[in-house]
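Writing this down once: the sequence line spells out the residues, with the fold written below as integer tokens. I am pasting one below:
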Amino acid sequence: MDFTLPPQIEAIRRQVRAFVEDRLIPLEADPSSYDEHENIRPELLRALRAEARAAGLWCLQMPESRGGRGLPFTGMAACYEEMNRSIFGPVTFNSAAPDDGNMMVLERVAREDQKARWMMPIVRGEVQSSFAMTEPDGCGSDPALTYTRADRIGNDRWRITGRKHYITGAGEAAHFILIARTSEDERKGLTAFLFHRDSPGWEVVRRIPIMGPEEHGGHCELSFDGLEIPDEDRLMGVGDGLKLTQIRLGPARLTHCMRWTGMGRRALEIAMRRIEERVAFGTKLAEKESVQLMVGEAAMQLDIGRMLTMRAAWMLDQGQFARKEISMAKVVVADALHRAVDTALQLLGARGYSKDTPVEWMYRYARQARLVDGASEVHRMVLAGQLRRDPRDFFHWGTAADG
């Protein structure tokens, strides 16, 4: 594969970089830019989103026919990385989780009438959305452990009972994708549904306090006690819920990696500026061998993660599933992000631990990377299983014919 970006994608990447540099990064130092959950303040976000849309930088992942820019995954990798050089970046461009993954999966599998009703308001930035899968003592990395039930009522409705938790964005979401059990079949026992926040029969039990800064809408616990969903709001076929999670979660994991590489880069940029000016014991920190070893290792691991991310993106663009490659990228980039931010904080010292830079924000955020969308240990188990099944194919280079 060729890592050179096509001119049109490079032009968009440069636009994103300039927007982030000129409009977003300066806002991070102003306490009034934040809401009570350490997100960008909603009124400020609305204004910046209007600017991003006017600049042609809105929904880069969506087709032009839907109001986006129609970038391939390789183009998204380059541009998402630039976006997340600012902690305010992805949400400004409507490329933050979970809306990002929800829009992409709806575009791929929903009927046209469902896209018009459920997807396009998210694309236009009118509503937020959530993907309700994870459960207390149930599914997390393993969707097969879903206990929330959907039982038929006649021929045209479903009744939902059960609980979900750590549902990102649920506190402010209007549109939900729900995974529920419709049979005990091992492979075809789950079904996906769409519902609106105003539907009766469910509630947000609480917004769960977390260690790090929160996405808009937090991470919530939900209770379902008789929510009724019309069969027309079922997404894909009965029993296709596991298939839908696989379609959604692979690309969504990779877009996390795209964003995390940008955050890791920014943390190192902040640290590098400091060590080039900070003098201790007669020399700049940047000239000390121990410091060079730290930043060199962090930069190397981050760049390895970028290459793995771009390889997986290229494979998705060729129509491949890239499951192994996405798992590798997820593990390596999560570790590389944490190393980069931890290194930056260590080199900044008290300044890094304080709120004088966004590094402490990044540090708390980065710890979740090894947990979300499948814990790193689970991905390593998946990779080990693939290696055991076919050691030779695991290291296959791939050819043009594979696409």
Q: What stands out?
A: The longest strand covers residues 157-168. Residues 243-402 form a domain with the Butyryl-CoA Dehydrogenase, subunit A; domain 3 fold (CATH 1.20.140.10).
